[in-house]
Each structure stands twice: as structure tokens, then as C-alpha cells.
Amino acid sequence: MSASLRPDLALISDWIAPGSRILDLGCGDGALLAHLTSTRQVRGYGLEIDDDNVANCIAAGINVIQADVDDGLAEFADGSFDYVVMTQALQALVRPDLVLAEMLRVGREVIVTFPNFGHWRVRLALLGGHMPHTPALPAEWYDTENIHLCTLADFEALCASAHWQVLERALLDRRHRAGFNIRTAPNLFCEIALYKLQRPG
Amino acid sequence: MVPEVLSQPAEAGGSVGIVTPRTVVIDTPLLLACGRSLPGFELVIETYGRLNAARSNAVLICHALSGDHHAAGFHSADDRKPGWWDSAIGPGKPIDTNKFFVVCLNNLGGCRGSTGPTTINPETGALWGPDFPIVTVRDWVASQALLADQLGIDAWAAVIGGSLGGMQVMQWTIDCPTRIRHALVIAAAPRISAQNIAFNEIARQAILSDPEFHGGRYIEAGAKPERGLKLARMLGHITYLSDTAMRARFGRILRDGDGQYNFNYDVEFEVESYLRHQGNSFVDRFDGNTYLLMTKALDYFDPAREYGDDLAAAFRQAQAKFLVVSFSVDWRFSPARSREIVNALIAAGRDVSYARIDSQLGHDDFLMPIPQYHAVLRNYLDRVALEVGS
To answer: Which end of chain B is more exposed for a tag (fewer CB within 10 A), N or C?
Structure first.
């Protein structure tokens, strides 16, 4: 599983201190947790709603808790994890802002990734009068799970207004590389954004 | 336990075939939570599959309120019904007898052959009856540990149980942490609610107030508190099914096809017929004193109590890895109660996975071959089998 680990997941693992406690929201088949368990010796738990994913996590020996992230994290105590992670699920939540606040309550630090809706392909599609189809956003407007897409600028505006501190940021293209274009005009060229946040104080 | 009318087709996987129970005599005295002690006792068990050379592949099945040692297979070729968890135990089934040596017992205080109210008290030569001590989940675990000693099993690969059985599994992890590798806690609760105690109290009152109860000495009196036991079971069955399941199965359907009310108290609605059938068939196979004692064990179960009501503190004793399973429409032991167990395990830093199974029936779902449920059990236990080298 770790052999084919997505590069964004590999990047996340670089942000995680060995031996920490991790909660992965929407953990899918548990690839990230499996990787972190073997390379970072973390004690990790995944939250996952889908039956098949839950069964697959169990088959892989990953600690998985079947629950809906949109139901909130009320079951988890304040600061009970070193990191709360959510990859590529923020934009599918009913209230991403509330979930982020909950993540910051439960975790000492939060790591979140999402597709950047400010990418030039998206802008070009909208300029042409259509909802975008991009490698990062392949679904149709009517059957997409993504209901709260945002741009880098939008996300950072939310962090600023909520007084969340951005500890680290990694901006990647669809080949999961951070090239010259992204450094020059991030909101135009970044396709996948990774942020590490914490609450002030 | 589950009526044929509500059962689903069994999934693939073979039967363990014809099985024969046996009695294990334990000579070690057992001090019980109530302060009394038993000088020794007998447990009736069934086993399926083979113990490997390393003795590492043993799995203990803990039964629920009205269960017994006969979990799988048939007692004879013309046996009509298999054991109570035959859907899950057998060659190629989730609890795979090709991989595991599966042990199931009738708990202490039971009425299917193990030492209990219907057996003879060696000190008096008379039936134990109501004098049999009220045993607790912790006592059961202690007795099961002595059984493991007798069978030469240092540590169980897994201990598995649903409902009251799941409570025994939790107690195992706390009381004998080095003797259980994996704990499968199904449709259970960390302790039962006031509502649940209330149901148990009504069940007990039904039995205790039956004129045929004779202070618990009904066998000597040539009697049986049938009405009380029947009422207790009818009440229980209401709580084992969801409102939706009852509505779907029985609705307001009348037994007589003419659709007319009879204006009497005979069986009229289908649901009445179902409950009476369940009650009557239970009376034939169960003992009143045992029912009283089992409900009390349920009421008393509360492992957090000795740890300042902190369940996580209790689970810090544990070393096992956990699988917790709940069923969406179970209201007797609801998913929220299973989440309490899961939350405490996470707080205690234990390894745990939790599956909430979409289900139809209610509490009885833990006995049903629901595909997702069995997939979860199978996936988990396949890893256990690899780990213990079976």
C-alpha cells in the first residue's frame, strides 16, 4: 500500500512527528495511516463512513471508526490528538468551517488538503460559461460530492478571520510537484493545497 | 432465538456438522463477587475445529442472556435447528473452524448442564435452586479462565460475544489482560441504562410473582413459573426488535382472514401470536432461577465502577486489540452505547476498530448473517488467524 502512496500523502507524513497520536478524518482505505504507522510509528485512528472502506481498513489492520465527519467530533475530547488530518474531503462537507474548528479543538495541530478552485483551468472553464472539469475535479456539477469548493485566497481568508495560524503550506500541481509557476502565482497554478494549522495561544 | 419468519438466507460456508457437548470438571475453588465461594464447579462446553500445536488459535465464544454452549452445528442428524450462532461459526464462515479452535460454554448459573440452579448442591444434596449465588460477569470471566487452564490455553487468540456476551469480552480484557489477544465486542454497552434495568426488573417480577414460583423451589414442588417466564420472554422480544422490523413483519395483520375483530382476549393480531409463540417455546428450554440470575448479572455489569466511573481507566488495564460492532436499529444496546466503549478505548490508547452495521431487525441483528457484518468479522479474524499462525 505504501509503495504507491500518493505524493501528497508522503508530504503529509513529513509534517508528522514520530510516535504521535493521529486522527484521520475520511481515511478511505487507510493508506495514509498504514504509511504513518510503519514509517512514523504513530498511533492512528481513521474516521470513515463508507462500508467498503471500513471493511478494507479492518482487513489492513488499520484502526477505523465508522462515523460521519459531518456529525462532528463531539465524541472526542479537547486536545486528545497530536494531529487531526483530513485529505481531499473538506470541500465535500456540509460546514467545512465548523469541522475545521472542531479539528482544531480535538487536535494540537490540523493538516488539511483540498483542490484549489482558483486554478487557471477552473477559471478558464468558467470564462467559457461552464462548470470546470479538471483532473482534480472530474465530476459533473450535478453529481459531484464537492459542495464547498474554495480557492487558496478563500481558505486563507477563513483562517485569518477565525484567527487560525498557518504553520506550513505546500502547493502542488496535479503531478504533485511544486514548480516555478506555483511559486510565482500560487492561486493560479496550484491544483492541490496542503495546510498545517493550529489555534493561537 | 430468532424466529424462522425473520431469518435471512444463510451465506456460504459449511457446517461443523454433528457436535457433542462435554462436561469439564473444575476442582479449583472460585470466590465470587457476592462473597460466597464455590468449592468447584462443572461447565458444559462444545468445541469446533482443532487446537494447533502452539495452542495459539483458540477462540472463546461468550453467550448472551439466554444462550448456551451449543453455538454451532447439530446434536443429531434429525436435529431441526443448528446452534444459536451457526451463521457465523463453521468451516469457511467468519469464525472459521478451519483456522480456529472455537470453544463455547454454558455459563456458570446456566440451565443447560453447567453448575447452576438446576444442578445439585454437593453440600446439601439438594437442587441449588434459588440458593445458587448470584454470579457476575467478572465471576464468569474467572470461571472461563479456569476453563482455559483446564484446556491448556494460556491466551485466547480472540474472545467474542454479543450483548451480555460482549460484556464478558470487555471484562476479559480488564481482568486477564495477558490472556486475550483480540476482543470482539458486539452489540454491547459499557453498562446498562436505567431503562434496561427497568426491563429486567419487570421480567424478574413476572417470574417472582408467579404463584408457581414457590420461592424458587418450584422443581421440588412439581411446578414451574411458566407464566412468569413466558411474560419475561415476551417482554424481552419486544426489546430485541426495532419498531420498523415489527411494523414490517406484523403490522396490524389479524390472524383470522375475515378482517373482523373478535371482541375477546384470544390471539388476534399477528404480533400477539409471535410473542406467545416465543414465550411458550422459551418456557420449554429455560429455567426461572437462571433467568433471574442472568438479568442480575446484566444489571451489575459496570467495569468502570472500580475505576472511579472512568471507563478509559478500566481499559488502561487491557492489552488486547478491539473490534466493536453495533447495529443501526438496535435500541436495546444502541450504537451510541458502543461508541462509549470506543471512545473510552481511544482515550485509553488501545487499538480499536468500530463498525456500525446498517441493519433491519434490532438487537437480534447480532445473530444474523448480514453481509457487511460478516465481512467485518471475517476481515478482522483473518488477520487474527495470520497473527497467531493458524
So the answer is: N
Which ipTM score applies to this complex? 0.92
Q: How far is B356 from chain A (nearest CA, A)?
A: 6
CATH architecture of the domain with range B4-192+302-388:
3-Layer(aba) Sandwich (3.40)
- Is the CB of residue A125 less than 8 Å from the CB of residue A73? no
The domain at A2-117+148-198 falls in which architecture? 3-Layer(aba) Sandwich (3.40)
**Cell 460454554 sits at which residue?**
B105
Task: Please enumerate in sequence order all residues whose Cβ is within 8 A of that of B357, keeping only pairs 6 or more positions apart, or say none.
Answer: B325, B326, B327, B328, B365, B370, B372, B373, B376
Q: What is the pLDDT of residue B199?
A: 97
Can you tell me whether residue B283 is helix, strand or coil? helix
Q: How far apart are CA B182 and CA B170, in angstroms?
A: 10
**B182 tagged catalytic:** no
The cell numbers describing B131, all together, are 440458593
- The Cα–Cα gap between B55 and B51 comes to 6
Q: Which of residues 140-179 of A touch B (CB under 8 A)?
A: none
Integer Cα distance of B244 and B360 in angstroms? 8
Name the one residue in this structure whose C-alpha cell is 481511544.
Answer: B346
User: Residue B49: what pLDDT?
Assistant: 97
Contact B148, B281 (CB under 8 A): no
Q: Does A77 touch chain B (CB under 8 A)?
A: yes
Higher-pLDDT residue of A140, A179: A140
Taking an 8 Å cut-off on Cβ atoms, the answer to whether B323 and A61 are in contact is no
For residues B327 and B359, is the Cβ–Cβ distance under 8 A?
A: yes
From the CA of B314, how many Å to the nearest CA of chain A?
Answer: 18
The answer to whether residue A62 scores a pLDDT higher than 50 is: yes
- The alpha carbon of residue A82 and the mean position of all alpha carbons in its chain are separated, in whole angstroms, by 16
- Average pLDDT in chain B: 95
Q: Give the three-state DSSP class for B154.
A: coil
Strands B126-127 and B120-121, sheet pairing: antiparallel
Q: What is the DSSP string of B164-179?
A: HHHHHHHHHHHHSGGG
pTM, two decimal places:
0.94
Q: What is the mean pLDDT of residues B257-280?
A: 92
**b/e map B40-55, b = 16+ CB within 10 Å:** ebbbbbbbbbebbeee
B3: confidence class by pLDDT, cuts 50, 70, 90: very low
* B199-293 CATH, one of 3.30.310.80, 1.25.40.20, 3.40.50.300, 1.10.1740.110: 1.10.1740.110
Query: How far lies B61's CA from each of A93, B97, B110, B129, in Å?
Result: 41, 13, 15, 26
pLDDT digits (tens, 9 = 90+) for B256-267: 878 889 999 999
- Minimum-distance CB partner of B342 among A54, A58, A65: A65
Domain boundaries, chain B: 4-192+302-388, 199-293
A55 to chain B, any CB pair closer than 8 A? The answer is: yes
